Amino acid sequence: MSKPTPISGFPEWTPAQRMIEQFVLDRIRATFELYGFAPLETRSVEPLEQLLRKGETSKEVYVLRRLQADTDGPAGDDALGLHFDLTVPFARYVLENAGKLQFPFRRYQIQKVWRGERPQEGRYREFLQADIDIVDRDTLPAHYEAEMPLVIGDALRSLPIPPVRIQVNNRKICEGFYRGVGLTDPEAALRAVDKLDKIGPAKVAELLAETAGASEAQAKACLALAEISAPDASFADAVRALGVSDPLLDEGIAELTAVVETAAAHAPGLCVADLRIARGLDYYTGTVYETQMIGYERFGSVCSGGRYDNLASSGNARFPGVGISIGVTRLLGLLFGAGALSVSRDVPTCVLVAVSAEEERPASNKVAEALRSRGIPTEVSPSAAKFGKQIRHAERRGIPYVWFPGAEGDEVKDIRSGEQVAAAAGEWTPPRADLKPLVGPATAGA
Amino acid sequence: MSKPTPISGFPEWTPAQRMIEQFVLDRIRATFELYGFAPLETRSVEPLEQLLRKGETSKEVYVLRRLQADTDGPAGDDALGLHFDLTVPFARYVLENAGKLQFPFRRYQIQKVWRGERPQEGRYREFLQADIDIVDRDTLPAHYEAEMPLVIGDALRSLPIPPVRIQVNNRKICEGFYRGVGLTDPEAALRAVDKLDKIGPAKVAELLAETAGASEAQAKACLALAEISAPDASFADAVRALGVSDPLLDEGIAELTAVVETAAAHAPGLCVADLRIARGLDYYTGTVYETQMIGYERFGSVCSGGRYDNLASSGNARFPGVGISIGVTRLLGLLFGAGALSVSRDVPTCVLVAVSAEEERPASNKVAEALRSRGIPTEVSPSAAKFGKQIRHAERRGIPYVWFPGAEGDEVKDIRSGEQVAAAAGEWTPPRADLKPLVGPATAGA
Questions:
Q1: Subunit structure, briefly (chains A, B) (predicted)?
Q2: Computed from CA positions of residues A264, A266, A270, A276, in that sequence, does the dihedral angle turn out positive or negative?
Q3: DSSP alpha helices (H): ranges in B81-131?
Q4: What pLDDT is recorded for position B197?
Q5: What pLDDT is stored for residue B73 in this prediction?
Q6: Are B286 and B269 in contact (CB under 8 A)?
Q7: What is the pLDDT of residue B71?
Q8: Out of A333, A412, B128, B145, which could bridge B287 as a Cys pair, Cβ 3.0 to 4.6 Å?
């Protein structure tokens, strides 16, 4: 085999980075469960027709083909693609299992997704998402739109990462406002405003004229709306000051006010009403969310979502939902790239049991067994080399303790301090901070 | 959308089953870490040329294709396939990162794999594997072959599943013995004997004659070897009684004796030397493992692996390894199918906070926040319906407690006993057994 090379867009973390990722996933999952979300995994593949319902993303889909497809295989094998998010599979799952589920159904889902995009900085072709969604049958109370940021705020606050700011908007505000100023194609207007960060206000005004038929005054009003941002319900006054009136606009203002006020009661400073947030995906119908990590704003949102009323429906059955998705790979990719996270060692091991001679290995195994039975991660030395070499084996991995079995009693050495004390495998316990690798923000100079 | 249907071979567990699976994965992972294995995830895709190095499995590979592949995409996109196990990607990872890794390198890896096989009972096209491997540079001490069953024994014993029996053999015994009786193509003989369970001894004898050129006496000797099985080192006497002598055979007997004796010292009854175990994959060169779950023997191995000396090598660099893989989906599929596992409720939620009126929701949110801050999984009621309806909401999900905020103090009701007591959200704690869903073997009649 010639030396293999990385494949662009398919990241692979080091074992140390994977330890950090697992720590992060455990914390996220614990928060999701504290809020009563049940776990779910869906298969990685969906029928292509499901994946292509949203035209915009079709070019990103990876299609599967069996290498030696034969005629006796089940039909339709060629019509499977890898999912590109967890919302579309979840909507499908709800429809397929509606008869067995209890509604409202709260679930979390932490899985890989795949997008065959052209690779670029910060874009991955395979990445991990951590989603929560709540779906209900027929109608979904608006208070769930206010709950989402609380969950995400708690989940991200439990991590050793910079603080985040969740930017919230409501599609009803945009659509109601656009209609209120007399635009007849609010979706086109939304798509134009969605490009504000990328192309700036002048170009958005041009686009509004071209694609949504906006007059100069209408475009100006749309841009004025998009400029509104407030950490509290005062955004509503700013909207009303623009003098536009529409029933859908009023509904959106009331809903967004509830989201911002609920968030302020729970976690002051977490949420900000930001009326430029549009989200590209067509299926959102109410609140939409994006999330900036402070200090990493230029890299875009690390956690996004919104309310969707029409994603899961079949005949008369309709399952409106709201969801939000943490881009775990994206988040970690940014922080790993900045060297902003650290772990105290490269292996889970707390103790390396030395081997004095190969025929004494069973005695070292017994020590390891006793330590493990009390929850202490332990390895036995690979060889009966000189003790200096065995200690270096531990040192290179950051294993803090080396254990020496002895005919007249065992000893354990803290190889950082050099301190060596008598110890019994059935009793000795390391300091709590040494038991497992510690994950945290990288310390200066690390 | 028309009602979607399952896709054969791509299983999806219910949320309750997924809770059981997560419990199982947490336990497996904890054991792997107790033994000092570091976590690793590799990308889901490998270059096709990597996946096809073992000819036998090529028909199982799923190839990826971007739906709208364009000429400006990176070359080679069409030459990617989904991995069909975790050993081949791991070997590739070791070669790619050899300069950055510390050897011997112990890693575990818990990931989905995909095989485009024709679906049949107990066979999946997408399934979860939990692997451990140890690789070293140049040479790998044989004691690691004895360590594998200890880890697996501990991991599986930590689960609420039937006991297992790990069947162990050593390729050197088979190859040495076949050479010792005068067969010149030991691999052909191995492949024939590997079919013993499927086609029986008479057909294997025919196959040995046809494919390995065995005489009647040679075939009889091969079958006699395959019949040897012992829970201890006495298998060696049985082999020697067959009167065949070969240096490789002696080496294999010594190694297998060490594996069986180490296992017996650690976990009596866990391992059995079973000389019919061959494993289909060509890359094994030493100890091989299969695992039967007692009562489910007819479904085949739930945990397999072996030593491979030549999987990861490049130029002069050579990384022999030994590994074993728990077929998590296979294991759980069998137990779910038999109704042999249960979880005490369908959601993580321990407490449902009732809402007396929609305008009182913030008060209920405050209670939930206080309970969650002390680690108690809590949901707030979806609506301010009559309390009877809110209680039924909890009942249907198995949520044990409903909390009633009140102007003159809160109360909490155990809806199983009906007992309702005064409580404060900052102090009340549920019994430990109620805090999280309990996973265990299904009780009779459940």
A1: Homodimer.
A2: negative
A3: 87-97
A4: 86
A5: 46
A6: no
A7: 47
A8: B145
Cα–Cα distance measured from residue B93 to residue A5, given in angstroms and rounded to the nearest whole number: 9
B209, burial (CB in 10 Å: exposed 0-12, middle 13-18, buried 19+): middle
Cα-Cα-Cα-Cα dihedral sign, residues A207, A210, A213, A217 = positive
Token pair of A241, please?
């000051």
Do the Cβ atoms of A81 and A51 come closer than 8 Å? yes
> Which amino acid is present at B123?
R
Better pLDDT: B436 or A120: B436
Peptide bond into B104 cis (omega under 30): yes
Among A434, A443, A257, A253, which Cα is nearest to A345's? A434
A294, with CB counted inside 10 A (0-12, 13-18, 19+), is exposed
Low-confidence ranges of chain A (pLDDT < 70): 1-2, 54-59, 68-78, 119, 121-122, 281, 444-446
**CA A260 to the chain's CA centroid:** 22
Domain annotation for chain A: domains and CATH numbers: 15-67+75-342 (3.30.930.10), 351-441 (3.40.50.800)
B78: β partners = none
pLDDT at A104: 97
pLDDT > 90? residue B119: no
- Distance (Å) of CA A345 to CA A19, A381, A396: 9, 17, 9
Q: Please check the confidence at residue B378 and state whether its pLDDT lies above 70.
A: yes
A1, B96: Cβ pair inside 8 Å?
Answer: no
Q: With pLDDT > 70 as the criterion, what percentage of chain B qualifies? A: 94
Question: In DSSP terms, which residues pair with A380 in a beta bridge?
Answer: A353
Beta carbons within 8 Å of B178's beta carbon, 6+ residues apart: B186, B189, B190, B212, B222
Q: Which of B62, B72, B100 sits opposite A64 (nearest CB)?
A: B62
Tokens representing B419 are: 């007992």
As a whole number of Å, the CA-based R_g of chain A is: 27
Chains A and B form CB pairs within 8 A to the count of: 258
CA distance B89 to B111: 11
d(CA B220, CA B217): 5
Q: Is A108 on the interface with B (CB under 8 A)?
A: no
DSSP character at residue A117: P
**pLDDT digit string, tens, across residues A302-334:** 999 999 998 888 888 899 999 999 999 999 999
Chain A 163-192, residues with CB within 8 Å of chain B CB atoms: none
